[in-house]
Amino acid sequence: MDLLKIVRRSLKGEKKAFQVLFELFYKEAYHSAYLITRNREQAEDAAQEAFLKAFQRLDTLQEPKKFGAWIRSIAARSALDILRREKHLLSTDEPEHLGHDLPLFSSGFPLPELEAERSHATTRSTGGLIFAL
Questions:
Q1: Is CATH 1.10.1740.10 the classification given to domain 3-92?
Q2: N or C: lower Cβ tally within 10 Å for the chain?
Q3: 9 in Cβ contact with 3 (< 8 Å)
């Protein structure tokens, strides 16, 4: 199978040819995204976004033989975009019960050692009393 021919057929609008490109390069795009996100779902989303972008902008590919490198770089940028969007959502939608004085993991939870210190300080301030609900 000649990659150059498949890319050229895709450039002419042949959807089956682009499907072949998807099947050939999906794993590579996913792997590039996963190296950045370290999350299966985010990597899948990034790889899918990469192919959508590639399909929409295939006419900008200057060297068809470099399709693999091109799609991997798009997947990596898509993964970074996903992480940026998630970070933005976390910073604007911070759960109120966590407090504003604790640094957060990217997951939105406080660092365990700081949460333990806070819990210990609360226990000391209440004299070790446990309140029944």
A1: yes
A2: C
A3: no
3-state secondary structure labels for all residues of 79-104: HHHHHHHHHHHHHHCCCHHHCCCCCE
Q: Say how many C-beta atoms besides its own lie within 10 A of residue 95's C-beta.
A: 11
Distances (CA, A) of 30 to 74, 76, 130: 11, 9, 49
**Contact (CB, 8 A) for 76 and 87:** no
Q: How many CB atoms lie within 10 A of CB 41?
A: 9
82 within 8 A of 46, measured Cβ to Cβ: yes
The residues spanned by each domain of the chain are 3-92, 96-125
